[in-house]
Every structure is written in structure tokens, then in C-alpha cells.
Design brief:
- By secondary structure, this protein is of the alpha/beta class.
- The protein folds into 3 domains: about 5-75 and about 110-190 and about 290-365, FAD/NAD(P)-binding domain; about 190-285; about 375-455, no CATH class.
- It is about 40% helix and about 20% strand.
- It contains 15 helices and 19 strands.
- It has helices at about 5, 15-30, 60-65, 70-75, 110-125, 175-180, 255-265, 275-280, 305-310, 320-335, 340-370, 375-390, 400-405, 410-430, 440-455; strands at about 10-15, 30-35, 55, 80, 85, 95, 105-110, 130, 135-140, 145-150, 155-160, 165, 185-200, 215-220, 225-230, 235-240, 285-295, 295-300, 300-305.
- A 7-stranded mixed β-sheet has the order 6-5-14-15-16-13-17. The chain has a 6-stranded mixed β-sheet with strand order 8-2-1-12-19-18. A 3-stranded antiparallel β-sheet has the order 3-7-4.
- Helix 3 (about 60-65) packs across helix 10 (about 320-335).
- It starts with a helix and ends in a 5-residue tail after the last helix.
- The model has no long low-confidence stretch (mean pLDDT about 95).
């Protein structure tokens, strides 16, 4: 292999969403890419259900897809979700819009269908070769050797790589190998909650049995049920529940305890789930983890990207969007450095880590918001006041949620803006009974004194 071709060759481990998209980005810059994937090809093999949560694609993910010319095709397979449809215990269903206008919404899409599309796009470039059923069993970073086990024939072999990027998700074998090195920092924080994927089938003739263009939430204080729409009229429902305690997964051990729990807590949706019992006891109980590690690279040889470096819990709908933004940032560095991979491998994690740490923390906070605060009167009052501020001061106020979901503002900036906004809302809502009574003169003063200087400093344009 010529030195020039060697410099334009790169190996990836993991052909999931981020690995496949990164392959597309690299192919467009004329890299020869090999991806080694542990699983069989999901386009040809049935992958077990119940291990994924429907995805919500928003601005950061769409920007990455647009940069490689895939946004329009992907959106054809997505369903707009314009807000949360909240189903409280009282039965008084209410709709909470996500955006400041009808043009701001998130999109529900099947993880599997998106992954298949990205794999096909990568391979169609002619620059990407995906090797399936290849499981990493070890790595010698000093000698640039990756050990692989072929799941189809039981054979083992070694790959001699020039540069390697681990895009193999939260259970990354590449991160595990890096973590063996002295001084490596790797924190895996398991949430004491599990999730179970369930199904609300379509109605007659593929009709939707609930509002189609919404993310449905049944908040119940310490646990919740959510449901996202699918193209065929069904909804993918996900129960988030503690592993232990009461109520918890440890208690739901029989059809009787399961149905009794659902009929008491989710009585409006239980009749729409005729296969509840089968799905619950067939599908696995998933775990959720937050990954924070450092560094993301070993010299200029190995690097982590996506969930392998910074997995987060799914409650801000940003896990995939964050991983896709990684691809955008990596591509930008390729452009800025003229493809200087040694410098990029060192610089990438230094640029991204503060932002991925920020969205990880926001995802945990949003979990608390979704499961109990969306039905809390004080929280709802503050949200109504915030909506008024966005409408009355459209050039000076934008919520943290909108910054994260509908803009490209760095996550750390959005996080810090949210702290300032909480101070403003807390001051405005003290002794307030109705959102319409908010003191707009005081609001203007607080925004101009606290929020606008912060936005100006970080060049946030609304």
C-alpha cells in the first residue's frame, strides 16, 4: 500500500448510527474506510426487538445528515412531533408545544430503519466496506493490532491498523481497552432505572389511536411511560421504572401484577396494548448509562467518537443528535487541518468533552422533569411564563430546551444559559398565581441585565 493511500485509510469499530454516518463523511473526503461490526447485517437478518428506544431527530442531527446529502431522504421516514402530550393521573390530557412556532419540532424515526439507511449510504459510496460478525477481543495500541473474532466461523485474527476510531457505543470494546492503561479515567454511571419496550398497535386501516404528531408521556412521579409514533400507525411505548423498590421491575413478575399495575397507573392506554403481557415478558429490560471518560484518544493511533466516548441517558432526545454532531465537528476539523489526523485525534476530545458532559447532565435533569415536573403546577406556571418571555422578547430570550433542540449553540453554552434563565423565572414567578400576571417590565430588566450579556459574550444569535 502506498504511503499516500495509507494516510487516506482509516478503520472504524461499530457500524451503528454514528459509525455508519462517520463512514459517509469520510468517504466524501476520499478516505478508504473499513468498519468492523459485531452484529450481523440487520438489513439481511432479524435483530431481536426490544433493545432500542425510538429516536427523536432534531437540529444537530439534521445538520449532520444535510452535510452529507441525506436529510431529505431520512425525513421522509420520520414523523414530526410538535410537542408533549401529557397524560396525568387526573386524566386531564394537555399538550405542551416544543417550539416557539409551528416550524420547530422534533422527528420520530425508527432506530433500525435509520441505521439501515446509513449503512447503505456508506457502502454506496464505494469507499466503505462493512465487515459484519466481527467482535473485538483485544487491542495492542503500541503495536497497532486489533484482535477480532469471527462470529460466523469461530476464527480469530489480527488487524494491523494505521488509525482506528471506536464508534462502538456505550459498551465500547475500544474504550474498555483504552481504560486498561494507567491513569485512564472512565466513569460509567448506571441509572437505577430500567426500560421496557412495548407496542401500541395501529388501529383499523393503519390509523393512529392517539394524537399522531406528539410524544406522549404518562408522568407518575418516580416513573413514567412514553410513546412515540411510527409510520405504520403504531406507537413504540417505553416504560421507565426503577429496578428495585415499589413500584419497580422487581415487583412485576406475573401477568397479574403487571396488568394490575398498568390498569391502576395507565388506565387510558392499557386497552390500546392488547399484547402488553407478551411484550413485557418477552422483551429484555434495558439499562441506561452515562459515560464520562478521558482522554478520548491514545496518541494519534486510536480515538473514540459517539456513545463510545460519551453515552448519555435518552431523556433529552440528544444521544444520537450529539453523536451526529461529533461527525460534523470531526469533518470540520478535517477541513480546517487539511486532513491532519494526528492533530485531530488529539484535538477532537479536547473540543468536545465539555459539551458532551453538559448534555449528559441536562439529560439527567430532563428525566426528572419528564417523569414528575410536567404535571407539577409550579413547573407548568414557570413554563407558561417562559413561553410569554419568548413571545414578547423574541430577540433576547430563548429557552434552554430550544437552544439544545433547535439550534447549533454549543451544549455547554445552553447549559449555562439555563442556569441564568432559572434565576430569572424563579424571581418572576415568586407569588405569581397566573402566568398572564407576570411583570413584563421586570422581566425585560432581568433579561437585559443577566441573559443578554451572556448571549452577547457567546455570540448566541436568536
Amino acid at each position: 500500500m502506498s504511503d499516500e493511500k495509507n494516510q487516506k485509510s482509516i478503520s472504524l469499530v461499530g457500524a451503528g448510527l454514528v459509525g455508519s454516518l462517520l463512514g459517509v463523511f469520510l468517504a466524501k473526503r476520499e478516505y478508504e474506510v473499513e468498519i468492523f461490526e459485531r452484529r450481523p447485517d440487520m438489513r439481511k437478518n432479524e435483530i431481536s426487538a426490544g433493545r432500542s428506544i425510538n429516536l427523536a431527530v432534531s437540529a444537530r442531527g439534521l445538520r449532520a445528515l444535510d452535510k452529507v446529502g441525506l436529510e431529505k431522504d431520512i425525513l421522509k421516514k420520520a414523523i414530526p412531533m410538535r410537542g408533549r402530550m401529557v397524560h396525568p393521573s387526573s386524566g386531564d390530557v394537555n399538550f405542551q408545544p416544543y417550539g416557539r412556532s409551528e416550524t420547530e419540532y422534533i422527528n420520530s424515526i425508527s432506530r433500525a430503519e435509520l441505521n439501515k439507511s446509513l449503512m447503505t449510504a456508506a457502502e454506496s459510496s464505494g469507499k466503505v466496506k462493512i465487515h459484519f460478525n466481527k467482535r473485538v477481543t483485544g487491542m495492542d495500541v503500541e503495536s497497532n493490532i486489533l484482535n477480532l473474532y469471527d462470529e460466523t466461523n469461530g476464527k480469530t485474527g489480527g488487524l494491523n491498523f494505521k488509525r482506528l476510531i471506536g464508534t462502538d457505543g456505550s459498551a465500547s470494546a475500544i474504550r474498555y481497552e483504552l481504560a486498561k492503561r494507567p491513569g485512564y479515567k472512565n466513569t460509567e454511571s448506571l441509572l437505577e432505572y430500567g426500560y421496557k419496550e412495548l407496542v401500541i398497535p395501529p388501529g383499523p386501516h393503519g390509523s393512529f389511536l392517539m394524537e399522531k404528531n406528539a410524544l406522549h408521556i404518562w408522568p407518575r412521579g418516580t416513573y413514567m411511560l412514553i410513546a412515540l409514533p411510527n409510520f405504520d400507525g403504531s406507537f413504540t411505548a417505553t416504560l421507565f421504572l426503577p429496578f428495585k423498590g415499589s413500584p419497580s421491575f422487581s415487583e412485576l413478575v406475573s401477568p397479574f401484577t403487571l396488568l394490575d399495575f398498568f390498569e391502576k397507573e395507565f388506565s387510558d392506554v392499557t386497552p390500546l396494548m392488547p399484547e402488553l403481557e407478551e411484550a413485557f415478558f418477552t422483551n429484555p429490560t434495558g439499562q441506561m448509562v452515562t459515560i464520562k471518560c478521558s482522554p478520548w484518544n491514545f496518541e494519534d493511533k486510536v480515538m473514540l467518537l459517539g456513545d463510545a466516548a460519551h453515552a448519555i441517558v435518552p431523556f433529552f432526545g440528544q444521544g444520537m443528535n450529539c453523536g451526529f454532531e461529533d461527525c460534523t465537528v470531526f469533518d470540520k476539523l478535517l477541513s480546517e487541518t487539511g486532513g491532519d489526523l494526528p492533530s485531530i485525534f488529539k484535538e477532537f476530545g479536547l473540543q468536545r468533552k465539555t459539551h458532551t458532559d453538559a448534555i449528559a447532565d441536562m439529560a439527567i435533569e430532563n428525566f426528572i422533569e419528564m417523569r414528575d415536573k410536567v404535571a407539577d403546577e409550579k413547573f407548568l406556571l414557570a413554563k407558561k411564563v417562559e413561553k410569554i418571555l419568548q413571545d414578547r422578547f423574541p430577540h433576547d430570550y430563548i429557552s434552554r430546551y430550544a437552544l439544545v433542540t433547535f439550534s447549533q449553540v454549543p451544549y455547554r453554552v445552553a447549559y449555562d444559559a439555563g442556569l441564568i434563565q432559572n434565576e430569572i423565572l424563579s424571581e418572576l414567578c415568586t407569588k405569581l398565581e397566573m402566568a398572564e400576571q407576570v411583570d413584563l417590565d421586570k422581566a425585560r430588566t432581568l433579561i437585559l441585565e443577566k441573559l443578554k450579556p451572556f448571549f452577547d459574550k457567546h455570540e448566541v444569535r436568536i
